[in-house]
Amino acid sequence: MNDLRSKVQQKFPNILPEIYFIPPANVHPAYGYQDSQDNFAQNHLIFNLQTLAEQQREVMFVVSKLNFHQYLAHSLYMKDVKPLPKPTDKCVDPTLRQGDFDLIIFHRYFGILVGEMKEVGLRNPRKPHITKRVNYTIKQLNKSELIMQHLISDIQPELIIRKAPIFPYITRSQLQATLDRNPTLKQELTKCVGAVDGAHASQLCLCSDELSDRKAPWHIQPAALESLNRWFLKRMGGSLDSHMTSSIYLELIARFAVATTVDPTNRRRKPCKSRNSRVRKKTEMVRSRQENAGPQHHKQASTVHGPQQTTNKDDYRPEQYSRNK
Asked: What are the start and end residues of every segment in region (Disordered) (predicted)?
């Protein structure tokens, strides 16, 4: 894997301080609505996440619509990846070997998030079949978590994997009303996302409340962007994954971006300021965001308390991103 990690630095020379999306969003007023329903929803979601990530200067690598058979399937690296865990391994349950990841966020400090999106409400907003789609989303997320655990088992099995149900075209009140009518579904969703109760579970789902209007997905109102920011903090922020080092971060990107059949050159990048100025800005931003975010409920993650020294000059982080040991 050393060769693959060197390829990461070649393809993404500023990988640690920059934001990458593969593929980037393809939403623009000139494009209209010619995409299929699924592609439209995916572009809508990615555009919102890109906008948030660029505004907040998050250090993360995002891959969307990655089919299991694409993972480690790049012909140039077949020898390098032969011994690595794959979805098709015999030890994997046959029912789990086929599928895809709707969304994977590799965050430099917060760990891994897998998302499953259902565009329920897009075609028929008056009568969305919410119960059926939420139930299917739970099953898909649990499957994605199991596959991800297998794929990273030889890197660091203790990495935190969070799960995010994504419903861009129903409101949270619609979701909560559905859960209230179905106690079993509420219990299953609560368990899936690691929430403390049903109300908390719905807050960890991404709904239309946090996204731009479907009629103008490229225009995000400040209120929607702030709501998306709060959701991001609830789902991923406030507590860090002490196992996500810079070395492991690069290892994950090497496998999921370089050694897959996804084209890593199709990306959207933003230039980064100098390291020192960026760290100062990030420190101020994180402190402000955490003060406004309220209490967090990530039981598995370690909580941020204060600065921590590091001897690895490449493993830099703002003091608010320091970890406890």
From this structure: 263-325
